[in-house]
Amino acid sequence: MQIKGRVALITGSASGMGRGTAEIMAQHGVKTVINDVNQGMVDEVVKGIKEAGGEVMGVVADITKKAEVEAMFKQVVNTYGRIDILVNNAGIFRDKAFLKMTEEDWDKVLEVDLKGVFLCSQEAVKYMREQGYGRIVNISSRAWLGGPGQANYSAAKAGVVALTRTLALELGKRGITVNCIPPGLIETPMWHSLPEEGKERLLKAQPMGRIGSPRDIARTVMFFASDEAGYINGQTLYVCGGKSLFANIG
């Protein structure tokens, strides 16, 4: 895939799918920017990629704060001269039954999982349109199809799908493609935080009988971000082992 030499910023890339994506991009010669809110975790990922021979920098920023997002992109462009790829990966969840969900639970998840995508995409496009080139890959979730106890998370991730489609229509003529990946069960810190009975229930409802790895997502991101995918725009590609075929079970 033609991606070597590009500059990519991956939000929430100090762990999980974001980290896996950053590592595989760096292995393919992408100048990779690690973003997260935890300085120690960012430093750890940056160190690992450098030791493996990759070109990388870390930026600690809260993607729900416009000023911090603006400063982050300025730092990237000042360092590398451009921004070619944005992977909107950062996300959180606060699952609760609908009537027990608080306003804070709703607001926090929507802020990180949807507002953060909006703010980062808007800032990235300011630079990408001047270049006449850009790739935005949004990480949604199979849960956008609906999930018990996930009113906030499902709504946010459905918003990511809708935002992807809208941006694809607005930005295609500027040489910027926008695509979306809704992962299913992936081995991330989110997965490990679930109770064992919850994991067992989810695995029983999984067509392939297993969860995926962060690299399954990373390889799909790599494809959308490559030159070969230049005529693919506004698409939603599930990486879920078939779980999207019966979204509301399990």
Number of helices: 8
Number of strands: 6
- The average pLDDT is 94
Helix-strand pattern, N to C?
A: EHEHEHEHEHEHHH
Distance between the termini: 36 Å
How would you describe this structure to a colleague?
The chain is α/β, with parallel strands linked by helices and 250 residues long. It has a single domain (7-246), classed as Rossmann fold (3-Layer(aba) Sandwich). Helix content is 46%, strand content 12%. Strand 2 (31-36), helix 2 and strand 3 form a beta-alpha-beta unit. Helix 3 (66-80) runs parallel beside helix 4. The longest helix has 29 residues, at 103-131. The protein is globular, with a radius of gyration of 17 Å. The N and C termini lie far apart (36 Å). The model has no long low-confidence stretch (mean pLDDT 94).
